[in-house]
Amino acid sequence: MSADAQKKASGEAAALLVEPGMVVGLGTGSTAAWFVKALAARKLDIRGVPTSEATASLARELGIPLVALDDVMSIDLTVDGADEIGPGLSLIKGGGAALLREKLVWEASRRCVVIADAAKHVKVLGKFPLPIEVVRFGHSHTGRRLADIAAEFDLPPPRLRMADRGVVVTDGGNVIYDMASGAIADPAALAQALKTVTGVVDHGLFLDLADEALVGTDEGVVKLLP
Ligand SMILES: O=C[C@H](O)[C@H](O)[C@H](O)COP(=O)(O)O
């Protein structure tokens, strides 16, 4: 089964968790898009809280009513993809530069379900470079402070994310530095260290946030718990 078919299967399985009346956090990325499509097909009376402009526009196209995070007290269920799923459902997210809105939505949610293809499930986080969202003002200085932190963790300096049209800018108007590592020995310590840097808005380590994972495999969708 292709990775895309696995993503589709996990997105469709997650859509079955949604019940009428729910406020649902809508994740970002290619896997979350399958969830949004499957959810729209169910035509339930729900409201969605999008985690990016891209997801908001997909949801609008498919007729899912949207509500802003500030206009709800809490979210019943959020379903979102991940770049890596590690031990205890620790995650790396932000490959699509949506980590900040995603984390805000996740933290406002009663239940968070991560969906992914089988290749995303890893023994140790870090093969996927860790995205770090940084305010644009003075970002090269912040980038140098991040390089100092990376050195403390024996990691190479993070690199400013670029695209064909130049520097990648997030929905929040910030930039992304990607910290390549190969393996993050102590994700909690790294997460804590990154948050001490002025200019860092947030990072893509989602620790103790996922309640379950639905991973598409060749043998079907497998449910993982922390
Ligand atoms: O910023 C993007 C998000 O964290 C995505 O959920 C993550 O990158 C996974 O995306 P995909 O499902 O496309 O692999």
What do these coordinates show?
- Pathway: Carbohydrate degradation; pentose phosphate pathway; D-ribose 5-phosphate from D-ribulose 5-phosphate (non-oxidative stage): step 1/1.
- GO terms for molecular function: ribose-5-phosphate isomerase activity.
- Substrate binds at residues 28-31, 80-83, 93-96, 120.
- The protein has 226 residues and is an alpha/beta fold.
- The chain is 29% helix and 24% strand.
- The strands form four sheets. Strands 2-1-3-6-14-15 form a six-stranded mixed sheet, sandwiched between helices. The protein has a four-stranded antiparallel sheet with strand order 8-11-7-12, with helices on one face. A three-stranded antiparallel sheet has the order 4-5-13, with helices on one face.
- Strand 14 and strand 15 (220-224) form a beta hairpin.
- The longest helix has 14 residues, at 139-152.
- The protein is globular, with a radius of gyration of 17 Å.
- It starts with a helix and ends with a strand.
- The chain binds ribose-5-phosphate.
